Amino acid sequence: MANIKQTRKQRWQDDHSGEPVLVFDNVSFGSVVRPVLRNVSFKLMGDETRILLGATGAGKSVLLKLADGLLRPDAGSIQVFGKEVGDMSEKDLLVLRTDVGMLFQESALFDSLCVRDNVAYELIQDHVPSEEVDQRVRQALKYVELENSFGAFPPELSGGMQRRVAIARAIINDPDLLLYDSPTGGLDPVSAAAIEDLIIKQRDIHGCCSLLVTERLQDVSIISTHYFDSGANRITKLPDRHEDKNTTFLFLHEGTIVLDGSISDLVHSQDPFIRAFLE
Q: Which of 16, 145, 206, 244 is most buried, taking the most CB atoms under 10 A from its CB?
């Protein structure tokens, strides 16, 4: 599977060098009376992490579900790896999702399934042999530093540990695109910091592009100003006044993108809604 995956990823990079992985082109969703998204347009490149900000109810989670094909746009175009998501059959979407990892809000684990079966859910549905499932699950759990949770059940784990299990599930297929829905929301500071470390590690070590929804300014600060030091096996702050150039920002207000730019653009924006959010 890994070799097939690497071949597919290399083929995409060779054939589509410089092209975006994800494109929203004038996407709208919702009724005329209560629109959720209105004419949303942006691109996500293959080496980029985009942090999607906005107040509760702005439409951020809906946008992620549209990107994963869980919802269909009412207008506009959504392309993932050059393919039109809105026109795909459910069968084709299942194939696409082997290249897209999704971390749902509040983890969305199955309480009745053990950690092994939660992480391996897609592999089990695809009838992957049990021995391969075990190997890949253990590898994913090791990555999130939860090797000993293999047979545990979600209610036995803390909120932060559940979120790390959900990340293991999201990366089990070695995705080329990761969608994070409020990965640190509701967590204590220590658990949130551990999740931020994993996000930075996935970005810097595995080169996976991502779209990340958050309402926490701490996420903005840490992810944009730190990198993963593989030698020290930890995240490290970039030199003063430096930022990760491949981490950029979108700000969604009442279903419309009101900012698309760098952290400097975000911090110096005079938009009243952004100023209120930052304060």
A: 244
Whether 132 is in a domain gets the answer: no
C-alpha–C-alpha distance, residues 117 and 216, integer Å? 31
Report if residue 212 sits inside a domain.
yes
Q: Within 10 A of 199 (CB to CB), how many other CB atoms are there?
A: 26
Q: Which domain holds residue 251?
A: 2-95+207-278
User: Contact, 187 vs 218, CB < 8 A?
Assistant: no
CA 24/CA 40 separation, integer angstroms: 6
CATH number of the CATH domain containing 270 = 3.40.50.300
Residue 60: which of 185, 203, 209 has the closest Cα? Answer: 185
Per-residue pLDDT tens digits for 136-181: 999 999 999 999 999 999 999 999 999 999 999 999 999 999 999 9
- DSSP H helical segments within 52-158, as ranges? 60-67, 90-96, 115-119, 121-125, 130-143
Residue 180 lies in a domain: no
Give the sign of the dihedral formed by CA 43, CA 245, CA 68, CA 38.
Answer: negative
Q: What are phi and psi of 95, to 5 degrees?
A: -65, -45
Number of C-beta neighbours around residue 4 at 10 A: 9
The verdict on residue 172 lying in a domain is: no
Residue 92: phi and psi, rounded to 5, are: -70, -35
β-pairing, 177-181 vs 100-103, is: parallel
pLDDT at 6: 53
The count of domains in the chain is: 1
Quote the tokens at residue 206: 């595995």
Higher pLDDT, 10 or 136: 136
